[in-house]
Write a structure and sequence with these properties.
Layout: H1 19-67, H2 77-87, H3 95-107, H4 123-134, H5 136-139, H6 146-149, H7 153-156, H8 168-177, H9 191-195, H10 198-203, H11 215-227, H12 234-253, H13 261-266, H14 270-277, H15 288-307, H16 315-332
Helix pairs in contact: 1-2, 1-3, 1-11, 2-3, 2-4, 3-4, 4-16, 11-14, 12-14, 12-15, 15-16
Amino acid sequence: MLENITVSPAPHISKAHSTRSIMFDVIIALMPAVLAALWFFRARAAVVIGTCVITCVATEWLCNLIRKKANSVDDLSAVVTGIILALSLPPAVPVWLVMVGGAFAITIGKMVFGGLGSNTFNPAMAARAFLTACFGMRMTTWTVPATIYSQMPAIAATGADAITQATPLSWSKQAIKDKGKDANDESKVTARTVNQQMIATLTGAVGGCLGETSAIALLIGGAYLLIKRTITFHIPAAVLLSAAVFAGIGYVANPEAYMSPIVHLTGGGMLICALFIATDPVTAPLTNKGMWIFGIGVGSLVMLIRIVGEYPEGVMYAILIMNAVTPLIDRYCKLVPAGGRKNG
C-alpha cells in the first residue's frame, strides 16, 4: 500500500486553478447583473461600466510601470474590481467621477498595499466609500430604470433625460422615522408600502445602483460561482442568515415601521455583497469558522446601519469594518496541523 503513496514537497495542487481562472469565473458570474444593468439603464450603464473597467485596467498598468513591476493586468483582477465598482455606482454619475473612483480603487485600495493579495480592504468598496464621502449628493441620486421611464409618456414628452426615484431602502428608512406619527397622517410612510416593491426588487424594476436592481440576476451569478466551487457557501449563508434574523426581529416587533426580511435581502446591495464582495478571497478569512464569523459580522452590521443608523444602506461600511477585523479572525481561527497544535 505504501508503494501507492507519493511523497513530495508543497504546494500540492489537485487541479489547475489560477488567479486568472478564478477572476474569469467571477466575470462570467457578474454578466447576468451587467446585462440586467444594461437592460434597465441602457447607455448610462454601458458608459459607467466601460469607463470603470478601462480606468481600473489602465491604472494598474501604469502603477506597475511606475513601480517597475511585471505587468499584472492579465490576471483580470482589475477587470473584476472595475465591474464590481461600476455595479455599486448610481447610473447617473458623470464619467469623470467614475474615473476618479476607478483610479482610487486600484491605486489606494490595491497597489499601495503591494498589489493583489496584499490589500487589506476590498478595493471597490474602499473607492465607493471615498466617492460617497467626497460626492455625497451625486452618489445618492437614483434614476428611474428606462423600462419604467418609457411607460411615462407625459414625462418622456418633456424631453428630460431621466427622472429620479427613491429606492426601497430610502422608503424603508423614512418608514422607520415616521413610526411615531399618527396613523391618520397622510404624509406617513409605512413599511407595508415598501413591501409592495418585493417583485420589483426581484426583477430589477426599481431605482438604485447598477448592480443592486435585479436580485434574480445576482442569484444566477452566485449559483454559478457555487457550482464551480469558486466560492463556498459559508460567507453568503452567514451574511444572509444574520441579516434575515435582524430584519425579522424588527418586522415582528413593528411591521408598520420595519419592512419584510425578504425585501431587505433582495433590495439594495445585500446580494451583491453576500455573493461577490464579502467572498473576496484576499480580504476574507481563510478558515470555515472564520468565514462564518466574518459573514455574520457583515450581515449584522449591514442591518444595524439600515435599521438604526441614519444611512439607508450599510454594505460598504460593513465590508470595510470586517476587512479590518479579518486578521484578528484569522488569528483566532488558526488551523491545527494534523498531529500538532496551534502556533502561538
